[in-house]
Write a structure and sequence with these properties.
The protein has 586 residues and is an alpha/beta fold. The chain has 7 helices and 27 strands. Among the domains are: 95 residues, Immunoglobulins (Immunoglobulin-like); 83 residues, Immunoglobulin-like (Sandwich). An 8-stranded parallel sheet has the order 1-2-3-4-5-6-7-8, with no helix packed on it. A 5-stranded antiparallel sheet has the order 17-21-20-23-24. A 4-stranded antiparallel sheet has the order 9-11-14-13, with no helix packed on it. The longest helix is centred in the last third of the chain and has 46 residues. It is elongated and about 150 Å long. Pfam families: fn3, I-set, LRR_8. Photoreceptor synaptic protein essential for normal vision. Involved in synapse formation in cone photoreceptor cells.
Length: 586
C-alpha cells in the first residue's frame, strides 16, 4: 500500500498507481507540474509526500477526491502559490508542510480552510506578512491536536521569512508575544527583516503601531487673498502607515505651484502647496488626497482671489490678521509688513511725475511679498538718492470724525521743498495725492470715511515714498483714542477738585482763626516791630530821589497785612521805582 518514486529523471507522476494505495511518496524528481487527474482514483490515500521536486504550481483540482488525506507534504519545491480552496475537499487533513518554497503571500480566504489543520509549516518562504483573519483564526482555534501526546497544542512554523515589521505585522507580533496556550511554534524567536532600522530585531523587542486609515486635516476650508500675492495651502494627514499626500484641482486644471512635504514633531505629515503670484485663474477648489494601503480620503480648500486686502469672511485664514491686542513691537512689525506691500521693491521703477492741483490720483504697482515679511527691504529707485530721506517721523497729531492732521519732520528740507501726501483706503491701489505748500510740514486730510483703515505716505514731490515714510491708521481707532483722552482729562480734573477743595477750606479756616485772635489780643509793640523786616536788594545804582536806609521798619499794621494770606498779592501792588525793579523777600 505504499508507493515510492524517487527517479531523478522523472518529469511526470506515474500512472496506473494501485487504487488501494494509502501512502504515496514522490521525492527528489524533476516533476514540474502535476496533471489534474493524477490522483483522482486514489480514494484511500492518507499520506501524500512530494518533497524536493521541482513543482512550480498546483491546480485546484489536483487534490480532488482525496477526502481521506491526513498529511500533505510539499516542502522543498518552487511553489509561488498554493490552492488553499482545495483544502475544503480534504476534511481530514491535519498536516500541511509548505516549508522551503517561494510563497510570497497568503490570501485572507485561507483562514476559512485551515481550521482543521493542527500542523502548518510555512517557514523558509518569502512571506513578509500574514493576513489578520488567519491570525485571528489561530488565536481562537480550539482544534484537536495532530499529535495526541502534545498536550493539545497546534504546531506552527513561521521562521526564516523576510518579515516587514510595520503596522501590517502588528497583530502577528501581538499574537506571538501573547500567544494562546494551545499554540506552539517550531521556532518562537522570529526576527524582523525590514526596515533596516529593525533588521535582525526579535519580535519580542519591537513596538509596532496598529494600522489606521488616513485622516485629512486642513487649517482652513476657505482662503481669501489679494491678487498677486503668494498663497500657501496646507494639508495634514494622520494614519498608519503614513499616508501619501497629493494635490489636484477639482476642475482638472493643472496646478500652478510647487509641493513641499514635511513631517512635524507629533508625527503628522504635512503637504504645502505654494502658489506664487496668484491670478484670477488660480481661484477654485483644491483637493488634498491622503492614501495608504487601507484606503484614501480627501479634503477640499476653496481659494478666492480678490483685488482688496480686507476680508470679512470668518472662515478665511487669520494667520496674518492683527487683532489689535498685540504688544507695541508686534503691532509695529505688523504695520511695517503691510506698508511694505505698497512700496516698490524693484530698482527699475520710473519716478512719479508731479501731480496737477490737489486731489491727483496715481496707481502704485503691487509689490511682491517678501519671503521674510519681518524685514522687508526696499531698493532705492533710479534718481532717488539723498532727498528721499528728508521725510521722517510721520505721525497723526489731530483728528475729527472725518479728518486727520498729519505732521512730519524734514530737517534737511529747504524752504522751497514741496512735499506730496499720498493716501488711500488700505487695500486699494489707487492713492490720492495732495501737494503741500513749500516749507510746510503739516497738512489736514478731509473727507475720510469713519471706521476705516487708511495708509498715508509723505515724500518729496516727484519721488516714490519709502516704507518708513508711510503709516497705517484707522479712523475709528483715532476717534476712540481722542475720546479716551478726554475722559482721562475729566477724571483727573474731578479727582483734583475733590482733593484740593477740602485742603483749601482747611487753610482758609486756619488763616481766619489767626486773624480773629490778632483782633482780640494786642501783642507788645517791640515784638510786633521786630517780627518782620524787609530788605530791598538792588544790584544796580539807587534810583534817583531815593535816600535813606534800604533796611526799613514797618508799623505793626503793615506787618500784619504782609503776613496775611493776601500778602504776596498785595506786595505786587506796591508802586515800582523807576529803573531796575527791586526784589523783596521775607
Amino acid at each position: 500500500r505504499t508507493v515510492l518514486c524517487n527517479d531523478p529523471e522523472m518529469t511526470l507522476p506515474p500512472v496506473n498507481i494501485p487504487v488501494d494505495t494509502t501512502k504515496l511518496r514522490i521525492e527528489k524528481t524533476a516533476i514540474r507540474r502535476v496533471p489534474g487527474e493524477a490522483f483522482h482514483l486514489l480514494h484511500n490515500l492518507e499520506y501524500l509526500w512530494m518533497p524536493y521536486n521541482s513543482l512550480a504550481s498546483l491546480s485546484g483540482i489536483t487534490f480532488k477526491g482525496l477526502r481521506r488525506l491526513q498529511e500533505l507534504r510539499l516542502d522543498g519545491n518552487n511553489l509561488i502559490a498554493f490552492p488553499w480552496e482545495s483544502l475544503a475537499g480534504m476534511p481530514q487533513l491535519r498536516l500541511l508542510d509548505l516549508h522551503n518554497n517561494e510563497l510570497t503571500s497568503i490570501p485572507p480566504d485561507a483562514a476559512r480552510y485551515v481550521k482543521n489543520i493542527t500542523y502548518l509549516d510555512l517557514s523558509s518562504n518569502k512571506l513578509m506578512t500574514l493576513p489578520q483573519a488567519l491570525i485571528a483564526t489561530w488565536a481562537n482555534l480550539q482544534a484537536v491536536p495532530y499529535f495526541p501526546n502534545d498536550n493539545s497544542k497546534i504546531i506552527l512554523g513561521l521562521q526564516d521569512n523576510p518579515w516587514v515589521c510595520d503596522c501590517s505585522l502588528y497583530e502577528m507580533v501581538h499574537f506571538l508575544n501573547f500567544q494562546s496556550p494551545n499554540i506552539a511554534f517550531i521556532e518562537p524567536r522570529l526576527k524582523c527583516f525590514t526596515p533596516r532600522s529593525l533588521a535582525g530585531v526579535f519580535f519580542s523587542q519591537v513596538e509596532l503601531r496598529k494600522c489606521q486609515s488616513p485622516v485629512v486635516h486642513t487649517s482652513v476650508a476657505k482662503v481669501k487673498t489679494i491678487l498677486g500675492s503668494t498663497v500657501l495651502l496646507r494639508c495634514g494627514t494622520t494614519g498608519v502607515p503614513i499616508p501619501e499626500l497629493s494635490w489636484r484641482r477639482a476642475d482638472g486644471a493643472q496646478l500652478n505651484g510647487t509641493v513641499h512635504q514635511e513631517i512635524s514633531s507629533d508625527g503628522m505629515s504635512w503637504s504645502i502647496l505654494g502658489l506664487p503670484v496668484v491670478s484670477y485663474l488660480d481661484s477654485g477648489e483644491y483637493i488634498c488626497k491622503a492614501k495608504n494601503f487601507l484606503g484614501a480620503t480627501e479634503a477640499f480648500i476653496s481659494l478666492i482671489i480678490t483685488d482688496s486686502e480686507s476680508t470679512d469672511d470668518p472662515n478665511s485664514s487669520a494667520k496674518g490678521t492683527w487683532n489689535g491686542k498685540a504688544s507695541g513691537m508686534e503691532a509695529a512689525a505688523y504695520n511695517d509688513k503691510l506698508v511694505a506691500r505698497y512700496v516698490i521693491t524693484t530698482s527699475t521703477v520710473p519716478t512719479l511725475g508731479a501731480g496737477v492741483g490737489t486731489g491727483d490720483s496715481l496707481l502704485l504697482p503691487a509689490a511682491a511679498q517678501d519671503s521674510n515679511p519681518q524685514s522687508p527691504q526696499v531698493s532705492p529707485t533710479t534718481g532717488q538718492q539723498e532727498p528721499e530721506r528728508m521725510v521722517r517721523s510721520v505721525r497723526v497729531i489731530g483728528d475729527t470724525d472725518q479728518s486727520i492732521t498729519l505732521a512730519w519732520k524734514a530737517p534737511m528740507a529747504k524752504n522751497t521743498t514741496v512735499f506730496s501726501v499720498l493716501y488711500a483706503v488700505f487695500g486699494e491701489r489707487d492713492m490720492r495725492r495732495i501737494n503741500v505748500e513749500p516749507g510746510k510740514t503739516k497738512v489736514t486730510l478731509y473727507g475720510l470715511l469713519p471706521k476705516t483703515k487708511y495708509i498715508v505716505c509723505v515724500c518729496v514731490k516727484g519721488l516714490i515714498p519709502r516704507k518708513e515714510q508711510c503709516i497705517i491708521f484707522s479712523t475709528d481707532e483715532v476717534v476712540s483714542a481722542g475720546g479716551t483722552q478726554k475722559l482721562i482729562n475729566v477724571v483727573v480734573i474731578s479727582v483734583a477738585c475733590v482733593i484740593a477743595v477740602p485742603l483749601t477750606l482747611v487753610v482758609c479756616c486756619g488763616a481766619l482763626k489767626r486773624r480773629c485772635k490778632k483782633c482780640f489780643v494786642r501783642k507788645p509793640k517791640d515784638v510786633q516791630e521786630s517780627y518782620v523786616t524787609f530788605e530791598s536788594l538792588s544790584p544796580g545804582a539807587k534810583a534817583k530821589g531815593v535816600e535813606g536806609e534800604y533796611l526799613t521798619r514797618h508799623t505793626p499794621d503793615e506787618s500784619n497785612r504782609l503776613l496775611s494770606a493776601r500778602s504776596s498779592v498785595d506786595s505786587e501792588a506796591i508802586p515800582k521805582i523807576e529803573g531796575q525793579p527791586n526784589e523783596y523777600f521775607c
